[in-house]
Design a protein that fits this description.
This protein is 64% helix and 1% strand. It has 337 residues and is mainly alpha-helical. It folds into 3 domains: 3-105, no CATH class; 141-214, no CATH class; 221-325, no CATH class. The chain has a two-stranded antiparallel sheet. 18% of the residues are buried.
């Protein structure tokens, strides 16, 4: 074949590629639409797209798409992984992706997968380095600091403030050294934890509770009736206790005697965060006093965005708080007493 014939074929091929790209830029709905506007057969379109590496829209299929291919791409599988799934080679997997117009999408998903893997590896590496550093610090630490380190090693993703944890262990050590017995409730109040949280923290670091029994004061029928009125309200018992000024175990005992109560949860905020109704009551008090969001967040040791979400949801959260308070203060109109 002469050079003139070869040049003519190349020019013809480039012209056809230009026609295909021009039609694609105008927008098409399907492979049939592309075939009609270019005047080319499906076989010719396949050859042109492979020759010039033309990327087709996802809705334009010149080949039958393998079932489940999109899911494998979304998982970030390698070409070898895709090939193993369908029973063919790595090179054939690359060809199939090109033919289906999904190769560029696969490249993007693989890039995301690699970045995520690299990020996870770095976090794991930093966690190991920090754990080694804590182990070195443990040799010269106090008893309370040692327990904080041990708890962090068991729960590296904990959201508890390390200073609060140290105060909790300090309170326990101080009581033990003075031969005193303090309940989980008393230890928790010294550091800002609930009884349940203290129990879980002690369990994680193998500390046995002191088993001091709580003082069971007489609960008058009037107080019991106030608590009973809250049985059907959609507020957790801990928040009911706070809003009514009662001990949590007193409210829990009254509720247990009334029967099985549907478990009530905290209010869910955007981003999977939750807020206690007792904290929401304090936030609304601060808002009405004219405090800024940053000031309230600093006082409650919470993120400003959480405070902002609670204020935005006041119309939904405040009525539940008021319903509890009205059992004790019938004329109240604010979500705080």
């Amino acid at each position: 074949m002469s050079q003139d014939c070869i040049d003519a074929l190349v020019e013809t091929e480039d012209l056809r590629v230009g026609i295909v790209k021009s039609v694609l830029s105008e927008g098409i709905d399907s492979a049939r639409d592309l075939k009609k506007k270019t005047g080319l057969t499906i076989m010719e379109l396949r050859e042109i797209c492979e020759y010039a590496k033309v990327h087709l829209p996802e809705k334009v299929l010149l080949y039958g798409r393998k079932q489940g291919l999109g899911e494998l791409i979304a998982k970030g599988l390698t070409l070898q992984g895709i090939g193993d799934h369908f029973g063919f080679s790595r090179e054939r997997a690359r060809q199939v992706l090109h033919q289906c117009g999904l190769y560029n999408l696969w490249v993007e998903e693989r890039k995301k997968c690699k970045e995520q893997h690299d990020c996870t590896s770095k976090i794991h590496e930093l966690s190991e380095l920090f754990g080694s550093y804590l182990s070195l610090k443990l040799a010269s630490a106090t008893w309370a600091e040692g327990k904080v380190v041990k708890y962090f090693q068991e729960h590296p993703r904990t959201r508890y403030d390390l200073n609060k944890l140290e105060r909790l262990f300090d309170a326990y050590y101080s009581a033990q050294s003075k031969n005193q017995k303090r309940s989980l409730d008393e230890l928790g109040k010294a550091a800002g934890f609930t009884t349940t949280q203290v129990s879980m923290i002690f369990g994680a670091v193998c500390i046995k509770p002191m088993h001091r029994k709580l003082d069971r004061h007489y609960v008058s029928p009037v107080r019991k009736n106030l608590i009973k009125k809250c049985f059907e309200l959609r507020v957790p018992s801990a928040d009911v206790a706070y809003l009514l000024g009662e001990k949590h175990h007193v409210v829990g005992e009254v509720f247990r005697k009334m029967g099985k109560r549907q478990k009530q949860k905290r209010y869910y905020l955007p981003g999977r965060a939750t807020i206690k109704y007792s904290d929401a009551s304090i936030i609304y008090l601060g808002q009405d006093m004219g405090l800024s969001i940053d000031e309230i967040a600093r006082d409650l040791n919470k993120k400003p965005i959480t405070i902002r979400h609670v204020i935005e949801k006041r119309e939904l959260i405040a009525p539940r708080i008021i319903d509890v308070l009205r059992t004790k203060y019938p004329m109240i109109e604010t979500p705080y007493s």
